[in-house]
Specification:
Tetratricopeptide repeat-containing protein; 29 helices; mainly alpha; TPR-like_helical_dom_sf; disordered N terminus
């Protein structure tokens, strides 16, 4: 029995369909369950693989593999030609069985490695796409074929059926074209052999892997006719998938409908056989797998839900109705029916309250919503997914100890969130630019309205990322973009807070831009506030308290100037800060800033105005001694003289001195 199921499993694993047929449900747990089905009587495999705690048990699995390798070398070193034929057969049979066990383990190891590499590739999309290949596995397949050939040629009279069956099996493992010759020969030589149904199934698997669907289908049907076969549920299950491939390749609608009906019937037959087979207690949940696949098929065909719910209730698989809603939602999305998609997922969550706690549903809804530009659904899906991550205990059990899949889910959300937000932001920019080129005002307005709607969605996505993933790669990019959107939407206070944070990130490439954008956000905060009642410039009797917005602007300017002294916007920013202080009557601080600006940048309009503002203040107050003192301070600066201000300062000094002399009299 174990060899029979093993052959089925291995042909599945080696083929391109080794993983679950629905890519979004790929799970290492699935592979382990297959392994246990393949060898239900091997307790050590069951003990380790059923737990699937790879961190703790992987070394044990590898150690057992090494023990089998050691035993194979011992057997291989035996001078087998000197042994009696009976002992030779025993040695070869033990070698074949050891090789079969090794192939199972190596296939598991290969697919486990591939799975992890593939998930990493999905996230990073930078490295080369991994390949499912293992040299050790290939070597054992070839070694097994070599021994199987020897057995078929040597023990034809001793164990003819077993020897030929083993040879056929290894031809399938190696996808050797000689398979068909030996398979037909076996059927002619042993028409009543107990191996016939298994070989029919194995032949079907071979042609399935070769994509010869009609031939595979006829062989699966032949295997099903033998009601004593212990693998009939598997055969019906594989027949269903074969018919679906036939349907997908059909050019005529009538042929496609016919094949789909056969697939429907085969799925239901598989479920019935599983339900009727009281002796069968597999570790691999074929009942669950077939129910899910049938739900997928019915969902893709939009079969009436009343029929679906009744059927799954009758076979005690009501949970599969949720899968039907899930796949119907996907089908609706493929048909560009956003309302149908949303309705299907709402029914899914209403039918199965636990479904709300499972990440894969929300991840798929995020993907579909993005494709259909159903942005309201998209935002809510991201929020729901974030809640799951915040309460990980509610969904961790879905994959139990599958740490790679859990980590993948953790990484997918910020990755999807970041790429989706950036993509939408680019669309906003593109729409805004395109609107400027339209001649019709109505068209311009329509396009700008669309851009504004997208901008709001983008803002929500950026906000989710900003608040939840401060340690993620690319956070500063998202934060900077988020600040810009806040600015565009008029939320200057929010923009200032974000820009201030980015400007203080030492590793960010946006520091200077963020610092200056913060200045502009603070400046707009000042403009948005109700203008305070101020005395005439230069005539304040005492300092007027600075409002919060003006304080924020001066603080942001000081940060910008201190950290980016060579920035082009430095001079205008410094002048703005000094002017605010001057307008509010904070003269000592204002004059200090004006003086520094006049001396450091005398050639600029801001530098000249700063100098004249200080002199004018004292001039208007007839503080001639202070005018003389200030003018002398400037005229001794070479840069001020070189900027062409010497004549003005000399004239100012001359007049101020004369007035000072008059005042003393």
């Amino acid at each position: 029995m174990k060899r029979i199921i093993f052959s089925i499993f291995l042909s599945l694993v080696i083929s391109s369909h080794g993983f679950s047929n629905r890519a979004e449900r790929v799970d290492i747990r699935h592979l382990a369950d297959d392994l246990l089905t393949a060898y239900p009587d091997i307790h050590e495999f069951a003990e380790f693989l059923s737990k699937l705690d790879l961190d703790d048990d992987w070394d044990d699995l590898e150690e057992e593999s090494q023990e089998r390798e050691k035993r194979l070398k011992q057997l291989d070193s035996i001078p087998i030609a000197t042994l009696p034929i009976g002992k030779r057969f025993t040695v070869h049979r033990e070698m074949i069985e050891l090789i079969e066990k090794q192939i199972i383990y190596l296939a598991f190891r290969r697919d486990h490695r591939f799975y992890n590499l593939y998930q990493k590739w999905l996230i990073e999309l930078e490295s080369e796409k991994p390949k499912r290949f293992d040299q050790d596995l290939q070597n054992h397949q070839l070694k097994g074929l070599e021994i199987a050939r020897t057995m078929a040629n040597t023990y034809e009279k001793l164990e003819p059926e077993y020897s030929q069956y083993t040879l056929i099996k290894f031809y399938v493992f190696n996808k050797n074209e000689n398979f068909d010759f030996y398979y037909k020969k076996f059927r002619r030589s042993h028409p009543k052999s107990n191996y016939i149904p298994e070989l029919d199934h194995l032949a079907g698997e071979y042609y399935f892997s070769e994509k010869k669907w009609d031939r595979a289908s006829s062989l699966f049907v032949a295997a099903l006719k033998n009601k004593s076969s212990k693998i009939r549920p598997y055969t019906a299950f594989k027949l269903a998938w074969t018919q679906l491939f036939i349907a997908s390749a059909a050019k005529k609608k009538s042929d496609r409908d016919k094949a789909e009906k056969k697939a429907d019937a085969a799925f239901r037959l598989s479920l019935k056989l599983m339900d009727d087979w009281s002796e069968y207690k597999p570790v691999f949940p074929l009942m669950k797998e077939a129910s899910t696949d049938l739900a997928w098929y019915w969902g893709s065909q939009n079969v009436p839900e009343a029929r679906v719910k009744k059927y799954f209730k009758d076979i005690d698989q009501e949970w599969a109705t949720a899968e039907y809603y899930f796949y119907r939602g996907i089908t609706m999305a493929q048909k560009k029916n956003a309302e149908g998609m949303e309705e299907s997922f709402q029914k899914l969550f209403a039918f199965n309250k636990e479904a709300k706690k499972l990440p894969r549903y929300h991840l798929k809804l995020i993907e579909l919503s993005m494709q259909l530009q159903a942005y309201d659904v998209l935002v809510e899906s991201f929020k729901s997914m974030q809640k799951l991550l915040d309460k990980e205990g509610e969904w961790f059990d879905e994959w139990e100890d599958n740490k790679p899949l859990i980590e993948l889910t953790r990484n997918q959300i910020p990755y999807y969130l970041r790429t989706t937000a950036i993509n939408l932001h680019q669309q906003v920019i593109s729409l805004s630019q395109s609107a400027q080129n339209l001649k019709s005002q109505a068209q311009q307005k329509a396009m700008m309205d669309k851009a504004q709607a997208l901008l709001k969605v983008t803002n929500e996505l950026y906000e989710l990322f900003y608040n939840n993933y401060p340690d993620q790669k690319g956070f500063d990019d998202i934060a900077f973009n988020y600040g810009n959107i806040k600015y565009e939407m008029g939320d200057m206070k929010g923009a200032l807070g974000i820009f201030s944070k980015v400007a203080r990130m030492d590793a960010s490439t946006h520091r200077q831009s963020a610092a200056y954008n913060g200045v502009m956000a603070a400046f707009n905060m000042v403009q948005q506030d109700k203008p305070p009642t101020l005395p005439e410039p230069g005539k304040a009797e005492k300092p007027v308290p600075l409002p919060e917005a003006q304080q924020a602007l001066i603080q942001q300017i000081d940060f910008f100037v201190k950290n980016f002294p060579k920035a082009d916007e430095r001079v205008s920013s410094e002048y703005t800060a000094a002017q605010i202080l001057y307008d509010f009557g904070h003269y000592p601080d204002a004059f200090k800033r004006f003086a520094e600006l006049a001396i450091s940048h005398p050639k600029t309009a801001e530098g000249e105005n700063a100098m004249r503002t200080i002199l004018s203040y004292h001039w208007e107050r007839k503080e001639w001694t202070q005018v003389v003192k200030t003018a002398n301070k400037f005229i001794i600066e070479p840069a001020v003289v070189a900027a062409g201000h010497e004549k003005f300062l000399e004239e100012t000094l001359s007049y101020a001195k004369s007035q000072a002399a008059v005042s003393k009299k």
